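Loading example: each entry is read as two labelled lines plus one structure line.
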Amino acid sequence: MSEQQTTGTAPPAPAPAPAATDPRLLVREKGFAGYLEEFARRIRGGELGSVPVIVGLLVIAVVFQFKNRHFLSADSLTNIGVYTSGMGIMAVGIVFVLLLGEIDLSVGSVAGVGAAVWAVLSVTHGVDDWLAVLIAVAAGGVIGLLHGFFFARIGVPAFVVTLAGFLGWSGLQIWLMGKEGSINTPSGSVVEDLTGYYFEDKAWAYGLALVAVLAYAGSLLLDTRRRRAAALPFRPLGEIALRTGAVAVIAFAVAYVLNEPSGARGLPLALVLFLAVLVLADFVVRRTGYGRRIFAVGGNAEAARRAGINVDRVRITVFGISGMLAAFGGLFIASLSGGATKNLGSGNTLMNVIAAAVIGGTSLFGGRGKIWSALLGMLVIQSIQQGLNLLGMASEIQYMITGAVLLAAVVIDSVSRRTQKTAGRT
Amino acid sequence: MSAPPVLALRGVSKRFGAVQALTDVTLEIRAGEVVALVGDNGAGKSTLVKTVSGVHPVDDGAIEWQGAPVRIGKPHDAQALGVATVYQDLALCDNLDVVANLYLGSELRTAGVLDEIAMEKRAKELLDTLSIRIPSVRIPVAALSGGQRQVVAIARALIGDPKVVILDEPTAALGVEQTAQVLDLVERLRERDLAVVLISHNMADVLAVADRVAVLRLGRNNGVFDVADTTHEEIVAAITGASDNAVTRRTARTGRRTGRPAKEARA
């Protein structure tokens, strides 16, 4: 096994202090050397994590900036951020479904239905704007629960259920939109603000960055203190400082770009909402029993069932979450395009959303992935689109390039799975 | 022994359609004792275990728990009583780490949030008291060897503080060294005063750790032997149902065994 070999090849540990430690035990050595060694071991074992995406983002930034010096301008980056938000929220829902090892092909149509429900209620029937938004999101949730019911209880493959949903719900969307086929967003409505509102006061962006960094550092320090009190291995302070530093650089760089350069509009509300969804979803997935059950069902449904987990309920609710987030994302798309239309969410929306989750590093095979992959993957896709738009590239070329990037991501996923198998992991 | 057995089956029968899987089976399991359940394929070992673990409720007969009659109708009933079963396929989630697997379905929480630190601490303590060596409690189970996975699965059965642990073929797929580790673990369970039911095809393992051997043949009891004063041949004879069978003929021919003639099975 690889970890035995790698720890074996390390210089024979200079007489490890307390008694009989098994030489095969994975103990991280103190300091950065140990940290680097563990990192290298993971990479060799095929646990690539976010590395390929971050490298990809850097390459994209350098290449497009080289081709067009407006790519990294405040305006362009703000656009990327806002466009990332709506579809990124949909991608979060897809990450939930992928963690189960399933797929949801209906998110585009559900987004369209969500936008249509809001538009018909709010604009045509004069329902209160907030209420209409809530009903639209809830409708998406109900649609998702319905998919989950057919999948989990009736036993129809999720692929087929959501493919039927893909057709059926886009039919409902067109029917709801009626003859005109489009309903414009009235000015001053909640949905217009979703992507149109910016916190212009510079304090907002810097303040949010500061809060994020403090919260991150605080949670790491608290965790370390509790682990130390419980006599468990804990992160060394150096590592915490390094991680906090990295987060701080990213957070304040983003805040700076949103605030300072000419053309900057401040902190977009869309980005704040997206971050809120990400943080909440990440918390649910990693820190709650519900999240643990999702991973368990995605890893081995039979084992989960025997451990007393209600597998059906997990499956149904996960599809519900996916539908809800799809409808919420649909409102963002409506906001960006100026209203709900007959074909909102059609075209390559579905592809982009699934591609984002996979590019970000969530496995198609279930049980492995992170919520943050929705952000990273969608950033890749939107950066490419923004860059190609700036270069005046035709949309057919954009399709081909996005397709190639998706293929590359899936290849990395499959190859890293194979490496992990040979390294004794799945 | 004066204390009533932890778990006793009295005249248990189970029928699946036309197949009478168990007929009038009696079995007593006491604390601090390892009972091996042996029998040929189709003898009813798995069915018997499933009646105790609540997968198949019994048709007829009684189950007694510490002397009092109980009904085990579903897996939850068995778990509530304190019967933990480790199935042959282990039922671990490969993508989750050891701690998560140990506590799967019974996670510790503080204020609704998973208490990873408490779980990791207790998992380490449990693995230490069982002398289980694994590279780290925070690596995915997929990275463990077959023997390590087996001991993790057994350790997981202990999380709910059971009184009876049922191990279904725990050494079937293991190498020599790993088998020894699992057998060590079985002995440690006995030291913790648990009642252990060990299902195995491997007579060497059975004789190495069991205190008593209960033989099933064609769904009926076919003798209970004290390991201390029983020979391999006696048990094999009880399993196969006759002293003249392929195994004894082979033994006589090759003379690899002690050469003592196999006795008649006690019916």
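The interface with chain B takes residues 1, 3-4, 22, 24-26, 223, 226-227, 230-232, 287-289, 292, 295-296, 298-300, 302-304, 306-309, 366-368, 420, 423-426 of chain A (CB under 8 Å).
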